[in-house]
Amino acid sequence: MDGVENGAGNSAGNHAAHDRGPESGHIPVMLDRVLELLVPAAQAVAGRAPVYLDATLGMGGHAEAMLRAVPSLRLIGLDRDTTALERSARRLAPFGDRVALEHAVYDEIPSVLRRLRVRAVDAVLFDLGVSSPQLDEADRGFAYSYDAPLDMRMDRTQSLTAAEVVNGYPPAELARILREYGEERFAQRIAAAIVRERERAPLESTRRLADLVRTSIPAATRRTGGNPAKRTFQALRIEVNGELDTWRRALPAALDALPVGGRVVVLSYHSLEDRITKQVLAAQAADTTPPELPVPLPEHEPRFRLLTRGAEVASDEETTTNPRAGSVRMRAAERVREAT
């Protein structure tokens, strides 16, 4: 998704330059490091064209760089945002039939691969969060810096919007969402303020909601930590798009699609996503031999090895030129054993 909290070798710098043109309007996050990790997995494939699955295609910046880096590569690009797919289709048109784009959410990976008759993918990227265009286009309602309708749908063909959540959910459910998905310690106060306000008139604009959040929390808190509406907007966006439940299904599905030598890279932009990623990858990289046995059992050996030590972050240089990389956490793994 060339995401934001919402983005190998000697050629990586050249690929990065390709993504600063007018069509993209953004800089893919940690592009050089993504290429460094994923290109070797694609180049190691013999006897067939390697397959790269970009599960959060966005503007196609990472995808274009991968296609340029590996001339035999075949891309399968997924996105729930039809606008992103249209823009990526234009950007990736020069690669012709090497590209297959699908309107799908990333937990639909198994069904997409079945439909395309693809048995395995060799490299997978998840760039989670909101894409740059979604944040920059005011009418999408993701950003508290613009006044816009309370929408926040990544897929505008779905029905649930942020306005429906704030105007229709019971107070306790609103508070739970703000507390769990936004890690908002004033969740109860904000939820109560929303309920009072919506009884006067439905909440329909981002500015009105942001102002309401700001006045609902203590003045001392408002003076630190950036815009106080950030956590509320994150929580609503996660709820509207079902992001965490989707992610819990999507990552295991992607791991199952990788052959030995296949690699996955995940770019997360908040702690909730990164925690799920860490737990899933750690479980796959663990030896599950019962502790009472004297030697490891082959069928219990790790299926994956971790390619990053903890979560990697963007360099100071990158966050200076691309502030949206400031919150990214990257984890990666490689399959080392087939499932039994």
Explain this structure to me?
This protein has 15 helices and 9 strands. By secondary structure, it is an alpha/beta fold. The protein starts with a strand and ends in a 5-residue tail after the last strand. It is globular and about 65 Å long. The protein is 43% helix and 12% strand. The longest helix is centred in the middle third of the chain and has 14 residues, at 187-200. α1 (12-18) crosses α3 (61-69) and α8 (171-182) packs across α9. It has a 7-stranded mixed beta sheet with strand order 4-3-2-5-7-9-8, sandwiched between helices. A two-stranded antiparallel ribbon has the order 1-6.
Spatial strand sequence of the major β-sheet: 4-3-2-5-7-9-8
Number of helices: 15
Assign an overall shape. Answer: globular
- Main sheet? 7 strands, mixed
- Radius of gyration, in angstroms, nearest whole number: 21 Å
Amount of beta strand: 5-15%
- Spans of at least 5 consecutive residues whose pLDDT stays below 50 are 1-24
Order of secondary-structure elements: EHHEHEHEHEEHHHHHHHHEHEHE
Percent range for helical residues? Answer: 40-55%
Mean pLDDT: 88
Strand element count: 9
Q: How far is the N terminus from the C terminus?
A: 33 Å
Structure class: alpha/beta
